[in-house]
From TrEMBL:
This is Androgen-induced gene 1 protein-like isoform X1. It catalyses: 9-hexadecanoyloxy-octadecanoate + H2O = 9-hydroxy-octadecanoate + hexadecanoate + H(+); 13-(9Z-hexadecenoyloxy)-octadecanoate + H2O = 13-hydroxy-octadecanoate + (9Z)-hexadecenoate + H(+); 9-(9Z-octadecenoyloxy)-octadecanoate + H2O = 9-hydroxy-octadecanoate + (9Z)-octadecenoate + H(+); 9-octadecanoyloxy-octadecanoate + H2O = 9-hydroxy-octadecanoate + octadecanoate + H(+). Keywords: Membrane, Transmembrane, Transmembrane helix. InterPro entries: ADTRP_AIG1. The keyword Zinc-finger does not apply. It is a multi-pass membrane protein. The keyword Protein biosynthesis does not apply. It is found in: Endomembrane system. Coiled coil: none annotated. Belongs to the AIG1 family. The chain crosses the membrane at residues 52-70, 91-114, 134-151, 160-180, 200-217. It comes from the Eukaryota. One of its GO terms (cellular component) is membrane.
Length: 245
């Protein structure tokens, strides 16, 4: 299991790093601003690649798996796991990476199935390699599920974790509104046809979905490793309260 973990971390990091390197050098994701039928939307170069959730998640996963490679290296050298780094990894895995990856995969392929022009116009097939599209939108969840299977991830108590998930989700929704205000366009074309009420409902539903995805990740992790993986923080809190009392 230990060797499988190391290989998994290294392979996923190399693939993600290569994908993001080629994207930022070649500017593949800048083509996501194409309209259906070709042609770039007015002002769509604003904020570059950093306005797309799929790119942000891909970069975040690259950093995460890079830190996992570093952890494996330090563990091999020092003979023990770097606890602080693992605690940070565990928090970000449960609160940010898994819910956001689920959001990217589920929303992208659901919208793609309904009308791909709303999320990934057919004109992009000629400019973005298919393998890169699958790195962004297909592999994001499977690599995390395999990570969850290979490595015990300690989930925080929900009272700590869920507010973090809500914060990250709300931060991105605010970010795309900033892009819409200053860039003069919506990052995702389907938002252009929504009025204020529909947009508000969408925002609330999106944050709610993230919370559901967090709970799904927690459930899967519990099935794999046991319930105590997300009770660690709450147990520590109770011990501190008892001592102070």
């Amino acid at each position: 299991m230990a060797s499988a973990k190391v290989v998994h971390h290294l392979v996923v990091f190399i693939v993600l790093f290569t994908a993001n390197y080629h994207d930022f050098v070649e500017g593949f994701s800048s083509n996501l601003s194409f309209k259906s039928g070709g042609g770039e939307r007015k002002g769509a170069s604003y904020a570059g690649q950093w306005k797309y959730l799929s790119i942000l998640v891909s970069v975040a996963q690259t950093v995460f798996f890079g830190s996992c490679v570093l952890s494996d290296l330090l563990e091999a050298i020092l003979g023990r796991k770097p606890n602080v780094l693992k605690a940070i990894q565990d928090y970000l895995f449960g609160v940010l990476l898994f819910p956001m990856a689920m959001m990217v995969q589920c929303l992208f392929w659901a919208l793609y199935a309904v009308d791909r022009e709303l999320v990934y116009p057919s004109a992009l097939d000629a400019v973005i390699p298919k393998w890169l599209n699958h790195v962004w939108h297909t592999a994001v969840v499977p690599v995390l599920l395999l990570e969850m299977y290979l490595v015990r991830r300690n989930y925080q108590a929900r009272s700590i974790a869920l507010p973090g998930t809500v914060f990250f989700g709300a931060a991105y929704l605010i970010w795309i509104r900033i892009v819409a205000h200053y860039g003069g366009f919506w990052v995702y074309p389907f938002l252009e046809v929504m009025g204020p009420i529909e947009t508000t409902i969408f925002n609330m539903a999106a944050v709610g979905m993230l919370c559901v995805f967090y709970l799904i990740g927690e459930y899967v992790n519990t099935k794999l490793w046991g319930r105590d993986t997300f009770e660690v923080s709450s147990t520590k809190s109770r011990k501190k309260s008892n001592k102070s009392a």
